[in-house]
User: Fold these one by one.
Assistant:
Number 1:
Amino acid sequence: MKDMVDVDSALRASAYSGKRNKGGGGSGDKPSTELEPFDPSAHAVKEKAEAISMWIVIAFGLIVALVMRYYLMPTMEGTQQVLWLLPVLLTVAIIPLHRVAVPSKFQKLYTNGNWFRASFLYLFTWLALSFALVNPPLADIAPPHISGAIDIETVEGISDATLKGSTYSVQINQETIPIVLGFAIRDNVDAGNSTIFLTISKQGQEGTIVNLGGVVSEIAEAGPSEKFDSVSEWHRGLRKNTLTGDFGGPIVAPNSQDIGMAWDLCEGGCGPGEYLIQIELSEEGAPWSTGQNTWSREYRLLVSQIA
C-alpha cells in the first residue's frame, strides 16, 4: 500500500518552503521595487511645457524658412553655402529663445533631452518647409538640363564609342561615317518653355555646323525632335531598371517627358576630328536676383580612325 500524505501536512510544507525562499537571499532573488507615485497635476504641467516648446520650435523653423526664401534668396544669383549653413547654425538659438518666450514656471522642467528633441524638430521643420517653398508649384530653383548627356546613332563603321565625363570618343574603321548627334532636355515643370542656345562646331573648320537659339518647344517642332524619334538605335543603348532588370527608353532620354532633339553633323559623312558642342539652357521665374535658372555644359566629340 502506497504512503498517504494528508492535506494539512502538504500545506505546512508549502508554507515553510515559501518562507525559506523569501528569507534565503539567494543570488537569483531580485529586490522588490516600488512604483513612484503618479502626480496628475505635475504631469499635466510638464505636458503643457513640452507643447509650448514644440510650437515655439515649429514657428521658429517656419520663420527661418520664410526669411531664407523671400529675403535672402532674392539677393543671390544662385545657390550658395549660406543657404544651409546659416539655418543649421541657428540651432544654438533654441535655448535662448525658450528663455525669452516660455514662462519662467515652465523653464525649470526642461532637460537636455528636451533641447535635443527641439533641435531636431527645428531642423526637420526648416528642411520640410524649405523644400516646399523652392519646388513646384510654389517655385522652381532647378534649371532645365540635359537628361542623359549626348549620344550618337548606331551605324555601320563605328568600331567603339565611349562617354567619359563630357568627352565622347568614337573610333571608326572607315574614312567617313554619318553621325547623328542627339540629346534630350528635362525640367521639373515644363521643359518646352525653357530657352536653349546651341552651338556645334568642328575644330579647324570655319563657321558652325549648328547655331541656334530660342524656345525649346519651337526648335524641337521645327525638325530636331522628329529627327531624334527617327533614330532606331542609340549607341549607348537602353536604360536598365536596376530593380526589375527591364529595359526602358534610351539612356540619352530615359524619361518619357524628356524632349529629344538630334542633328546630322556632316553632309556626306564625318571624318576624324574634334567636334565641340556648347549647350546653354535657361528659364524664367526663379527665386534668384536674376529671375532665371541657368545651366550650361560643353561636350567634346572626338572621332578617330583606326586601321
Number 2:
Amino acid sequence: MNAQRRRFLLSVTLAGAVAAATTGLGQTAAPAVGPSSSDAKGAAFVPDFSGMWAHISCCGFEPPLSGPGPVTNRSRRNGAGNGYQFVGDYTNPILKPEAAEVVKKFGESELSGVPAPSPSKQCWPGGVPFVFWNIGMQMIQQPHQITILYSNDHEVRHVRLNQPHSTQVTPSWYGDSVGHYEGDTLVIDTVGIKVGPFAMVDWYGTPHTEALHVVERYRLLDHAATIEAEKRGELENTRLEVTDAGFSRDPDYTGKGLQLQFTVDDDGVFTMPWSATMTYRRPLSTLGQWPEMVCADSPNIYFYANKAIPMADKPDF
C-alpha cells in the first residue's frame, strides 16, 4: 500500500487486521511452564498476558524514564510527534555517523513531500522492533510457545519458551525469538533479524544490521500506573481517536494494563544500547474483532494528494 493511503487509513479507520484471529482466541490463561512465580500454596504459575491489547498512539516508541532512548520525531503536530510526517532526530547520540546520515536523508524526503519508503508503507514484514508500532496486539500463551498477532497486515511472531537460540540462526523477518518467565515478567530475546530492502527499526528510517539484538520484557501494570505511563507516552506520540471496538478504550475497565519495555543493541548502527516502552490497555472488545485491512502495493497516490480515485468506463466482467 502506498504511504498516503496508509496514513489516510491510520487517521480514518485506524485499522489493521489479522484474518486468522478468531473469536475468543487466546483469552484463557496458559498452564504453568518454565521459571515462574509461586502462589501461597507453592504452586507454580505464569502471569496471564493472554488476549487482545491496544496501544492507541502513533507511531513512535515511548522514551524511557531515564537513559538512552529511541529516535524521536522532529516534526511535531499539536505538541507531539507528527503521525503524518516522519522526520527522525538524527542528532540522537545513540546513532553512529553513518546511521545518522540515513535518518537525516529519510527525514529530508519526508519534508520534501515525497514520503520515504518503510516496511509498512511498502507491504513488507516490519521486523522487530518496528512491528511494535501496531495499535492492536494479541498474545496467545501456551506451555511451549508464545504467539503474538499484530493488527496490521497479518503479522505474526512465534516465541519458543525455555529453549536456547539455535546454534546456526538463519536470518528471518522476525528473527529467532526465545522466551522465559522471570517472576511476573515475560522475557523475549530475539536475534537473527533479516536485513531487507526496507529494513529499519522505526518509522524514521533508522537502519539495522544482522547483529540487531532485541530483548523484550512484558509485565502487567495496575490501572493507575497504566494511565500515568500512557500520559507520558502521549507527550511524544499522538493519541489516536479510535472508534472501532477492537481498539477503543473500555471506559468501565479498571483492570491491569500491559507494559512492554525493550532494549535494542546493534553495534553496527548504534553507539550504545538503548531502550523504549510501549503501554497497552484492554480494548472495548476482546473477542478478536479487529477490522480487516490487507496491505496491497499501488503505484498511484490518491488520498493524500486529494486526487479522484480512477473509475473504469465499464465493468471488468
